[in-house]
């Protein structure tokens, strides 16, 4: 575990600030998500047109994320997040104006691209800060940060529901929320880890990396070579696939669970929304409780168990009675709660390579948000939305084959090696 000259109280304050920034990111994300139906109606879009328009947001994230690690490494986490927030403000304003004033799908798509870019930059950078805080505290906290994100989405969705019920136009809602979120984020980030601490740790880790490369080169009888791209590292790519599956199993519920309850179980719309709220609530609970499980049993055993829960939960939703389907939504929520945050933590195990690796892993994971919705829609056209959810169980079973990639370095050692040394050394 990396040491730091900062007092523990200072690191704890940084942890609290990261909680706030994650929650604000959830609020920002759900601000738009809660008004999608209103935007669809306002622009008179078909389902296919809406899907194509939403693609612009995912495209923005996918293009922005790969370079975010390098930006955070060069300029610092706080300036990087601030840039992402400011880009997001512009995007929210453009989307609101595109619906309320221009009534233009093209304008809305442009705004969504900006939102996706801003949120993508913000997402990677805040996870880097969360990973640094986690290392300095010496215990697992990343799932709790993601629980804060989930809690923010629930609160924002409820606010958005009220805005929709009151027929509040999108422009004041979206822009007002973005301004409040950004102001709160700027204040909270004052308590982030000092830039000089990050730089000091990075310099120490660079020296260790150079020594390791020199040793490898000496053993191979050749001169030291520069570190290769994170995109060429097998473990990083495998972690990315784990995160992709986690994002797919979570994102599928975000996009299709309510529809599946309404169309598949023939329930009223409010019941579908209640099922989705059940999923979100238990996913948040899983992230809050999961830190203790991870510290006690380790990443691999916990993820094996939770992904099995995701399989069982999705099967209950698909094949169970109405009340069993609600139980399934709860089990599914717990099952998908830890994959995404644990994968990001695993990508940051080595502090010297964390920015590059986390950018790669996040980019691979976010591909699920591009491919997932249209893939499930295509299946839904042929077998029904409810039966299309079988893809969730299939993916959650297959990921078991590569979960060893997220194992903690400390748990790779033998038990005797992992035990603390007693007596003189």
For the termini, the CA-CA separation is 19 Å
| Average predicted local confidence, pLDDT | 82
The strand count comes to 0
Low-confidence stretches: 214-225, 413-425
Any idea how many domains?
2
What is the CATH homologous superfamily assignment of the largest domain?
MFS general substrate transporter like domains
Q: Architecture of the largest domain in CATH? A: Up-down Bundle
Q: What profile does the largest beta sheet have?
A: none
Find the CATH topology of the largest domain: Growth Hormone, Chain: A
- What percent strand? under 5%
Assign the structural class, choosing from mainly alpha, mainly beta, alpha/beta, alpha+beta, or little secondary structure. Answer: mainly alpha
**Tell me, what's the shape?**
globular
Give structural notes:
Helix 1 packs antiparallel against helix 5. The longest helix is centred in the first third of the chain and has 33 residues. 49% of the residues are buried. This protein folds into 2 domains: 195 residues, MFS general substrate transporter like domains (Growth Hormone, Chain: A), CATH 1.20.1250; 179 residues, Growth Hormone, Chain: A (Up-down Bundle), CATH 1.20.1250.20. By secondary structure, it is mostly helical. 81% of the residues lie in helices and 0% in strands. It is globular. It has 18 helices and no strands. The C terminus is likely disordered.
Outline of the structure:
This protein has 425 residues and is mainly α. It is 81% helix and 0% strand.
């Amino acid at each position: 575990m990396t040491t730091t000259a900062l007092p523990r109280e200072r690191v704890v304050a940084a942890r609290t600030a990261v909680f706030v920034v994650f929650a604000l990111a959830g609020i920002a994300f759900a601000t738009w998500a809660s008004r999608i139906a209103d935007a669809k109606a306002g622009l008179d879009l078909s389902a296919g047109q809406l899907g194509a328009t939403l693609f612009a947001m995912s495209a923005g994230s996918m293009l922005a994320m790969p370079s975010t690690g390098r930006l955070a490494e060069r300029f610092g986490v706080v300036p990087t997040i601030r840039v992402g927030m400011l880009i997001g403000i512009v995007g929210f304003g453009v989307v609101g104006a595109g619906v309320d004033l221009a009534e233009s799908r093209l304008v809305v798509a442009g705004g969504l691209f900006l939102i996706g870019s801003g949120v993508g930059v913000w997402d990677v950078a805040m996870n880097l800060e969360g990973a640094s805080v986690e290392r300095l505290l010496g215990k697992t906290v990343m799932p709790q940060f993601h629980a804060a994100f989930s809690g923010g989405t629930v609160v924002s969705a409820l606010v958005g529901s009220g805005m929709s019920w009151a027929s509040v136009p999108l422009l004041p809602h979206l822009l007002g929320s973005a301004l409040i979120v950004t102001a709160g984020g700027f204040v909270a980030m004052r308590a982030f880890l000092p830039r000089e601490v990050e730089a000091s740790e990075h310099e120490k880790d660079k020296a260790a990396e150079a020594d390791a490369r020199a040793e490898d080169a000496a053993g191979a009888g050749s001169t030291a070579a520069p570190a290769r791209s994170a995109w060429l590292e097998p473990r990083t790519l495998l972690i990315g696939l784990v995160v992709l599956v986690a994002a797919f199993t979570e994102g599928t519920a975000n996009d299709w669970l309510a529809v599946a309850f309404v169309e598949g179980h023939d329930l009223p719309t409010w019941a579908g929304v209640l099922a989705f709220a059940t999923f979100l609530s238990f996913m948040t609970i899983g992230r809050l409780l999961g830190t203790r499980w991870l510290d006690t049993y380790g990443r691999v055993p916990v993820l094996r168990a939770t992904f099995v829960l995701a399989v069982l939960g999705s099967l209950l939703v698909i094949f169970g009675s109405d009340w069993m389907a609600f139980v399934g939504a709860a089990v599914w929520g717990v099952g998908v709660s830890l994959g995404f945050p644990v994968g990001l933590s695993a990508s940051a195990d080595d502090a010297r390579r964390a920015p590059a690796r986390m950018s790669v892993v996040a980019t691979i994971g976010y591909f699920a948000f591009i491919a997932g919705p249209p893939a499930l829609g295509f299946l839904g056209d042929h077998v029904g939305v409810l039966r299309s959810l079988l893809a969730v169980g299939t993916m959650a079973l297959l990921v078991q084959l590569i979960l060893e990639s997220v194992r903690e370095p400390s748990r790779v050692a033998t038990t005797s090696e992992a035990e603390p040394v007693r007596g003189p050394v």
